[in-house]
Specification:
It is built from 5 helices and 6 strands. It is an alpha+beta fold.
């Protein structure tokens, strides 16, 4: 879950309320510079064996959690990120850092707000009607199409775009929903 603002306040009250509502446990990745926290929620029968917050390599933050799951021999790594919303070049560096987690012999899931468009998606509807401040975030200077390099870096590293794999990609999200 991304943008879990203030989940760490009042002794983690919002985190605890969300855990109870979902019937799950959660670990929080606090983003001290931006407040755009992330969380990984997991079933109570998953054994959390490692948990790390990384706000050094990310504009916002990343929450990295490793689990032992009954019936699986391999440890499962789950990473939730919120990549930089305002600069494609910063997102590229963040994606390059995430590439270190590629290992075909391991189970790794990266989820989050990539603030980027998949290689496999059509050009989002409504981009041309967006206010300039949104365009500046997702286009390189002089470009006429949205930047896709962030997710291309992950693709070249060996990660699989699950939405594309299951043919669930190409759905507009914020900020394009309702603009086209």
């Amino acid at each position: 879950m991304q943008e879990v603002r203030n989940f760490q306040t009042n002794d983690n009250q919002l985190l605890i309320e969300t855990e109870n509502a979902l019937g799950m446990r959660g670990v929080l990745g606090v983003a001290p510079k931006t407040g755009q926290n992330v969380a990984v929620f997991y079933k109570s029968d998953f054994e959390l064996i490692f948990w790390q917050v990384d706000d050094m390599h990310f504009y916002n933050t990343a929450c990295i959690a490793k689990f032992k799951i009954a019936g699986l021999d391999e440890v499962v790594t789950m990473i939730n990120v919120h990549l930089c919303h305002s600069d494609p070049k910063i997102r590229w560096d963040e994606a390059k850092f995430l590439s270190q987690f590629v290992d075909s012999s391991k189970l790794v899931l990266i989820a989050g707000d990539f603030n980027a468009v998949s290689l496999f998606d059509a050009e989002p509807l409504g981009w041309k009607a967006l206010p300039v401040h949104f365009k500046e975030r997702h286009f390189l200077p002089g470009a006429t199409v949205v930047d896709r390099e962030t997710l291309a870096i992950l693709d070249r590293s060996g990660f699989v775009d699950v939405a594309h794999q299951f043919q669930k990609n190409n759905e507009n999200t914020v900020p394009c929903v309702g603009i086209a």
